[in-house]
């Protein structure tokens, strides 16, 4: 019998747009490979934003003692254990050691050489961030980071602060703070001046803040009233600070007993004061509304146990990182816990955070760094560049032609070129 070819019915782009925007990011990636029409449609900025607006599935990212970063795609069916995958990221000097934050499906990663990258763990695209001025600051002290989105400028920002001690004119040791914010769109760091708040010195620097509602949050105090401890808020769009009052009756002066976190997309204050049985987690159900704080009690764990809530998995159940470190599923109603096993992790994992699947592209950046030349014959700057289909490396002179080609083809659109420490395509 002769087979008859049947043509697929035509679907308007509006319908395809609506259907595809509801699919997981990985499925969209596969659909992009099926036709040029779909590739063009599913790669537009409008589609990526629409897909992001519908994304709500929280996945886990775990860092391990073997210097790898692993993605746990889903924790449904966690009773049988979950499967992780190693992110095949561009090799960097040293090793990946820390996930500093997540925003819109992008991760802010740090290597043990102190280099920062924005990475999409689904598409594996990544962009390097130039060193902050704090990297050249010889003051010893703890450095904290924040990562977020500026909706007004359509820009991703990194904020960093360093805490250090210095004797004042009265020979009294003071805690000082330097703070900078990086704009991926503009490609440079800018110092935040006239700080009216002091952050609390971080006991756990990697857990010093929380990104919620397009703003970054730290525990802090007003400089003119150090006895008034608040949750200080940095708005990425306005580049100004404001404050949120902690839960009523909760004194957050003791930084050894409190930290901030995010649970279910809500800001939370985590502390073990007045609860010898375990931890209290206050969750701000409606952002900015003081009366919306409510408390969850978690028995058997304390802040010193590296306690960190990650996400809800079912009604009344929360995934926690606790001392070990290990993952635990805690049932709030029954006040019981059980280990969450993750297959495929080499060695032990160090820490964890959550991210959502998205197709958001990290800013494409050409980074040049000066190194000591191997000989007098080699005095060029060594460079490498990442972009959506890979990376190339060579001397700065080599990239002049590359840059001109990309500008001619319009591959990157608007661009910024500067000699010196770095060049960036925006």
Automatic annotation (TrEMBL):
What PROSITE patterns does this protein map onto? FBOX
* One Pfam family from the record: FBA_1
Tell me the organism.
Answer: Castilleja foliolosa
* SMART domains according to UniProt: FBOX
What's the name of the protein?
A: F-box domain-containing protein
Q: Which SUPFAM superfamilies does this entry report, sorted A to Z?
A: F-box domain, Kelch motif
**Residues in F-box domain copies:** 5-51
Gene3D superfamilies xrefs: 1.20.1280.50
Highest taxon in the source lineage: Eukaryota
PANTHER family in the record = BNACNNG10540D PROTEIN, F-BOX PROTEIN CPR30-LIKE
- According to the UniProt entry, where is the signal peptide? none
